[in-house]
């Protein structure tokens, strides 16, 4: 074994990203007493909740389940004001944690890591930022998120537009006023579904340019008063038990009821009940075949399509808003407040890009195959290079200069979704092949596992850890196997690595762990209990 005392680098641990992963990783490293530094591209903490500050941005799962559970003090002191908190409240929550534990002291902002290279001779990582400054550390933790590299549409003339232009994930901190303006929005993913009703309130006109419609159901948000917040606090212990026993770490539980055992009337009554409830219940607590049986999924889809037709007055628009080829829940289900009703407003128009594609973006608007639109402001709700995109944005190189992009050119190859071959002392929080679902709950587990691993290495004077090839192969094959029967892996979406605006992102990959969070934690715990014998330790 080596010694951590030989030729110490600048830091024991460097963390890339100051989102939820980076903040919690900083807290855990501080608990270990190691020298740590967080490097963040933005000007403050928050990650997703720093960048995505567009009007209408908010949680799609219950606030009090989305927060961290590691600190009883935070649970006792923090008050949520809504069942589904808006962006600004979530950002305050993250800053509150950083204030309470003085995490700011170990954070550096406006610092974009461009290169991260493993130095085998010194057994450390060498990172370079946009200014050329170099940082070295024994261990590297990435907390760079699933959805952090935005993409613009692959349309000629994007840079020619002379009006105001915004991407939903790079929204300015100042308030944007759309009053008396003609606005165009390209894309109808989850962010667009949230922002469209807000923009339509004040804009002179709003034209929605839609390529692929998405499914959405009502959010049913409401305020949380002092008495209800106190009740929620008292129920945290039981809530945590429920979350940790859930497949996706949400408060909603799955059911074993079969859709084929219910009559059409019973199904309709059940779906009406679930549709009227807040949160992810309609998705998670639906009949067990919903996400694996096309016929069952078609029945659920028909129910949601009927709801859309009831809510949108114009029949043509209603039909355009209903996905034609994909079933409900096969894409991530974005929740909404009054999205469909927005299309009933006289200042809102839908344009189907499958029928009339955008030929180019001009200085003063857009030109489709049939019509020219004069526009004052364009909003790009065109998504991200998801899951692996943030890793592709940094020049990661491991043993012998191995490029991470080359390692993953046919799709991610990981061990436990936390490590990858040829990249010693390299850990990922919420990278590919991890259990996602409720993201903060997943982060608490992933960062906790990483922290305990680093603690073990330090206690045993181990300077280098890297997963063995056979276990990387076994884990990657396992991830592929458990995802093969899930209908969502048969659909082009960010969850299968497809982005039609990016070259090389047209082929589906298995980039996420489709098993239950319980199974994921069980496998990872077993590795730790066996003293990491599936890794090469030096």
UniProtKB/TrEMBL annotation:
UniProt cross-references to PROSITE patterns, sorted A to Z: PROKAR_LIPOPROTEIN
InterPro entries, sorted: FAD-binding_Monooxygenases (IPR050775), FAD/NAD-bd_sf (IPR036188)
Classification via SUPFAM superfamilies: FAD/NAD(P)-binding domain (SSF51905)
Keywords: FAD, Flavoprotein, NADP, Oxidoreductase
Gene Ontology molecular function: oxidoreductase activity
Superkingdom of the source species: Eukaryota
Protein name: FAD/NAD(P)-binding domain-containing protein
UniProt organism field: Tothia fuscella
């Amino acid at each position: 074994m080596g010694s951590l005392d030989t030729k110490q680098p600048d830091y024991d641990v460097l963390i890339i990203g100051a989102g939820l992963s980076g903040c919690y990783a900083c807290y855990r490293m501080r608990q270990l007493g190691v020298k740590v530094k967080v490097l963040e591209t933005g000007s403050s903490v928050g990650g997703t909740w720093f960048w995505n500050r567009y009007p209408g941005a908010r949680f799609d799962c219950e606030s009090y389940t989305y927060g961290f559970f590691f600190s009883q003090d935070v649970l006792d002191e923090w008050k949520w004001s809504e069942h589904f908190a808006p962006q600004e409240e979530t950002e305050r929550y993250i800053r509150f944690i950083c204030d309470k534990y003085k995490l700011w002291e170990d954070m550096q902002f406006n610092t974009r890591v461009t290169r991260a290279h493993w130095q085998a001779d010194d057994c450390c990582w060498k990172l370079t930022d946009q200014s050329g400054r170099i940082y070295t550390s024994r261990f590297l933790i990435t907390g760079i998120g699933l959805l952090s590299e935005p993409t613009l549409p692959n349309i000629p003339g994007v840079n020619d537009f002379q009006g105001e232009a915004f991407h939903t994930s790079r929204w300015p901190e100042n308030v944007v006023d759309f009053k008396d303006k003609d606005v165009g929005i390209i894309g109808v993913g989850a962010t667009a579904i949230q922002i469209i009703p807000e923009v339509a309130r004040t804009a002179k006109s709003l034209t929605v340019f839609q390529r692929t419609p998405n499914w959405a159901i009502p959010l049913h948000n409401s305020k949380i008063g002092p008495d209800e917040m106190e009740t929620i606090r008292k129920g945290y212990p039981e809530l945590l038990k429920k979350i940790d026993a859930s497949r996706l770490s949400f408060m909603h539980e799955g059911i074993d009821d079969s859709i084929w055992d219910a009559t059409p009337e019973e199904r309709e009554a059940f779906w009406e009940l679930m549709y009227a409830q807040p949160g992810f219940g309609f998705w998670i607590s639906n009949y067990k075949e919903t996400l694996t049986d096309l016929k069952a999924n078609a029945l659920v889809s028909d129910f949601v399509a009927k709801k859309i037709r009831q809510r949108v007055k114009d029949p043509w628009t209603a039909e355009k808003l209903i996905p034609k080829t994909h079933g409900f829940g096969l894409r991530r289900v974005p929740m909404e407040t009054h999205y469909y009703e927005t299309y009933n407003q006289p200042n809102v128009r839908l344009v189907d890009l499958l029928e009339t594609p955008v030929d180019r973006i001009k200085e003063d608007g857009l030109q489709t195959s049939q019509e020219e639109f004069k526009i004052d402001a364009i909003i790009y709700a065109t998504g991200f290079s998801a899951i692996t995109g943030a890793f592709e944005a940094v020049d990661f190189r491991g043993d012998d200069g191995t490029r991470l992009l080359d390692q993953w050119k046919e799709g991610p190859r990981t061990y436990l979704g936390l490590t990858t071959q040829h990249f010693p002392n390299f850990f990922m929080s919420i990278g590919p092949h991890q259990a996602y679902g409720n993201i903060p709950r997943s982060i608490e587990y992933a960062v906790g596992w990483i922290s305990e691993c680093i603690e073990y290495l330090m206690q045993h004077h181990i300077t280098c850890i890297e997963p063995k090839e056979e276990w990387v192969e076994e884990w990657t094959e396992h991830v592929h196997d458990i995802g093969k029967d899930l209908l969502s892996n048969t659909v082009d979406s960010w969850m299968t690595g497809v982005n039609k605006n990016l070259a090389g992102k047209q082929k589906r990959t298995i980039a996420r762990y489709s098993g239950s969070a319980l199974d994921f934690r069980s496998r990872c715990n077993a590795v730790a209990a066996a003293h990491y014998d599936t890794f090469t330790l030096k």
